[in-house]
Specification:
Elements: H1 3-8, H2 18-29, E1 35-42, E2 46-52, E3 58-64, H3 69-78, H4 87-109, E4 118-122, E5 125-129, H5 148-164, E6 167-168, E7 177-180, E8 183-186, E9 193-194, H6 200-217, H7 224-239
The chain binds adenosine-5'-diphosphate and magnesium ion.
Length: about 240
């Protein structure tokens, strides 16, 4: 790593591996952000940071961890076998493709939906617009909408629009919808897949069931099955 990179991100040297530090440095030297500020969330696969740009606006930097516990254990048993030296690289490639897919999904979704605008990606790092005013907007689970019915129908409209664009979110829930000033924003498109994917039907069903479960808690009945049938019919019609 260059001295400059080491200097710039040295406070993170115990948090990220050297490869990730280099990737962060590359993206910041391309002016996508200047400094990482506070960590927002340590997720299952990624760490999410708020970052500041040179012109003092905010972006979100989503950093996929290259090592997961299971993988490390498995890897430790195989790393000394010279025939399997490329395993680490193969795992990395999957993560890079995962990041690229999330970027592409956001790019497509933003044509019709409220989603963060993707800004850049490189290797295991994705930079996107931060949804929120001076701080990131709350997740739906932490900020109950004032108009539950209106909020729910806005969400359903966006699920339909997404299907028309040829995508299913696949991980839709009160965790991955933000309540930004009473408007729903969809985030976390890493599992988003094509409506042609053999798993699309199952994902769409699950997304709608998750929504129904959340809204039921807030005394609003959303007929997951009816909405699924309607949207799935539209998807199939679009295929022919
Ligand atoms: N673009 C964004 N704007 C504001 N907050 C965000 C944004 N992206 C992520 N977050 C916050 O970080 C959390 C985790 O991000 P997410 O993409 O869902 O990662 P994970 O895959 O770990 O669930 C979100 O639930 C949300 O609170
Ligand atoms: Mg999430």
């Amino acid at each position: 790593m260059t001295n400059q990179a080491a200097e710039r991100f040295k406070i993170y040297k115990n948090v990220f591996d050297e490869f990730t530090l280099q990737t962060l440095f590359k993206l910041s030297s391309e002016d996508h952000f200047d400094e990482l500020l506070s960590p927002i969330m340590i997720g299952k696969e990624a760490n999410i940071f708020l970052a500041e740009t040179k012109d003092h606006s905010y972006v979100i930097v989503k950093i996929y961890r290259l090592a997961s516990c299971n993988f490390n254990k498995m890897y430790s048993y195989i790393r000394s076998d010279p025939r399997f030296m490329s395993l680490k690289n193969r795992k990395r490639l999957v993560i890079f493709r995962w990041v690229q897919r999330e970027y592409r999904n956001l790019l497509l979704a933003r044509e019709r939906l409220n989603v963060p605008t993707p800004i850049a990606f490189s290797n295991n790092v994705l930079v996107m617009e931060s949804i929120g005013d001076d701080r990131p907007a709350p997740q739906l689970k932490d900020q109950t909408p004032k108009d539950i019915k209106g909020f729910a129908s806005n969400i359903l409209k966006q699920v339909e629009d997404l299907a028309e664009l040829g995508l299913v979110h696949g991980d839709l829930s009160e965790f991955n919808i933000l309540n930004q000033n009473e408007k729903p924003y969809f985030i976390d498109f890493s599992q988003g897949t094509s409506t042609q994917d053999p798993n699309a039907e199952e994902y769409l069903k699950r997304d709608l069931e998750n929504l129904a479960r959340f809204f039921r808690k807030h005394k609003f009945e959303l007929d997951a099955n009816a909405h699924f049938e309607k949207i799935w019919k539209q998807i199939k019609r679009g295929r022919h």
